[in-house]
Amino acid sequence: MSTDLFLNSTFGDNSVNENSGHSTNGHDEIDAETLWLINEIIKPELPNISDNVSLCLQMLENDQVYKMPVSNGVKEGSSDVPWIKGVVSRKQEYITGFRVMVRFPDFQNGKVIALEMRPNFKYLLTQFGSISNNLHKIISLLDDLETMTDIHQFIKIYKDIVQILDASINLLQAPPSKLTYPENNNEPMKQIFENYKENCDNSTNLIALDLILVKNELCIDFRNLNKVTKKPWCTVDPNTGKSFIDKIKDELMTARTKNVKLILEENGLTVEDSNFLNILLNSTFKPDTTTTLAEAQDYLRRGSTFDGSAVTESSKIMASTSDPILICVSSKLNGLKYSIDNHYENLKIHH
Fold first, then answer.
1. Residue 306, SS3?
2. Which domain of life does the protein's organism represent (predicted)?
3. Is residue 71 located within the same domain as residue 220?
């Protein structure tokens, strides 16, 4: 013997379909199912979810100092490739120690640069701090949910938790663009090292630093940048803050039917063939309004506006160091995401 369930069935009473009672009864039944899901399934798990978020927060706010080695895997003393060696220290959301030796073969004739964090200074890891703030918000919202009786408000707040958790996990995986080259305007270098101008900035080159979280690791990227001096590539529009290089890049993005040569010519440049003689003459005798396609493409490929000037990237050092706390927190947050997302999907189905 089998039983068929007829949800919202009128059992042959067609009169129910002739008034608004059917719609109301349907909504009442859906709300009753959603209320049962909230009270019997989701709410009993909220304290456990809150405890796990609190545990992540405790790990992030632990006042222990973690010292981590920094290296790009190249042997110290290598003459033909860039290298970095040193130690970085973190306490909570701050870098509290940073001591490295960096060498670029094409910067100051390969001189080794010794960099040490200014005394009694703490550098805020913005991603780290944002994740901590997000977890505090989640705990507060979870507390609100435990006593909430309004179904619609419960679902709205639960959705907020899902979004905040997703944002936190994303922050562990990749930084916002404003924290990275070229948008960060070298703030890490300016803030961390007292003598950075003396050691890392000259008339032709500049050393830039990114200090960010990527894929649960603390990543340290140094770049050797060439300062662009040739017009019009070096010019910066005071109204937009963008160099001629970025102006051309933007136009290439918005006018996809136009090729590089046409856009350059519309901006007042004469584009000559990229033969050896033209390249040689262009670098020495030709006027600023003349370029070759090869030269232009090189500026567009390696160039950017950085800290108010036009630069091109010459070489780069990428180093990462495993942070045990970040690995643990990432694992726990991803586990929580699975559970929280399941509940949210069920709420959407029933509502």
1. strand
2. Eukaryota
3. yes
pLDDT of residue 325: 93
Q: Are residues 216 and 241 located together in one domain of the fold?
A: no
The pairing of strands 290-292 and 270-272 is: parallel
Yes or no: say if 84 and 222 are a contact pair by the CB < 8 Å rule.
yes
Question: How far is 237 from 185, CA to CA, in rounded Å?
Answer: 16
Q: With respect to residue 17, please indicate whether it lies within any of the assigned structural domains.
A: no
With CA atoms as reference, report the closest residue to 188 among 215, 207, 167: 207
In this prediction the pTM is 0.85
pLDDT digits 0-9 by tens, 65-84:
999 999 999 988 778 899 99
pLDDT, tens only, 277-300: 555 555 555 667 889 999 999 999
Measured between alpha carbons, how far is 162 from 264 in angstroms, rounded to an integer? 47
Structural domain of 42: 24-227+316-351
Spatial CA neighbour of 263 closest among 273, 248, 250: 248
> Is residue 18 situated within a structural domain?
no
- Give domain status of residue 2, yes or no: no
The tally of domains found in the chain comes to: 2
133 shares a domain with 216: yes
Token reading at 71: 């290296």
Give the DSSP letter of residue 243.
B
- Segment (H or E) for 221: strand 217-227
